[in-house]
Design brief:
single chain; Rossmann fold; elongated; about 25% helix; alpha/beta
Length: about 200
């Protein structure tokens, strides 16, 4: 009986075929939680796993990847995308959190990892505070075999939220923060908030 290859039944990648999975969405949507879930399943399957995060993101922990729900997993903080290539030779699965904080070189790095037979699971914001594609995310979405967009709940109206609304007036591209600075909002509430600024 033929079984269609999928991530969940574990038949994809048995011949060392690599691929890219992107988990994206707004802040507070569960991206990191989903990355950790997938990585832990790979570890249960006795696959060799390494998780990376950008050195700039030290909100919860200097090294570990930590979700908003305090779920965590050991990772390596790196400052440059190419540092991932140097450290990922011996693993089967590479996880990368907060991938939007890397420069466009991360696209080449992810492609090289997948071309070398690795399952690459990346998580990050697909849009910045202004509702525009965030850094390398558009390119990563284009090369991915699997894309999962997760949603938060709009803090204003309770609908599905896909935007990360910045409550401050800063126009800097990267401002690290949590609920003190950001809110998950639906399109309507996001646009209303941007118009009020």
């Amino acid at each position: 009986m033929f079984v269609e290859p999928t991530i969940e039944n574990g038949t994809l990648g048995n011949d060392k075929n690599g691929w890219v999975e992107v988990v994206c969405g707004s802040m507070f949507s569960g991206k990191t939680e989903e990355l950790i879930r997938r990585v832990k399943r790979a570890m249960i399957a006795k696959q060799r796993v390494l998780i990376f995060k950008p050195g700039i993101d030290n909100r919860y922990h200097a090294e570990n990847v930590v979700s908003h729900n305090d779920n965590s997993i050991q990772s390596k903080a790196v400052n440059f995308a190419n540092d991932i290539l140097l450290q990922a030779n011996e693993c089967d699965v590479v996880g990368i959190d907060e991938v939007q904080f890397f420069d466009d070189e991360i696209i080449n790095v992810v492609n090289k990892l997948a071309n070398n037979g690795k399952r690459v699971i990346i998580a990050g914001l697909d849009m910045d505070f202004a509702g525009r594609p965030f850094g390398p995310m558009a390119g990563l979405l284009a090369i991915a075999e699997f894309v999962t967009k997760v949603h938060a709940i709009c803090i204003k109206c309770g609908n599905i939220a896909t935007y990360s609304y910045r409550r401050t007036k800063s126009s800097k591209k990267v401002v690290l923060g949590e609920t003190d600075i950001y809110e998950a909002r639906c399109r309507k509430c996001f646009v209303e908030g941007m118009n009020e600024k």
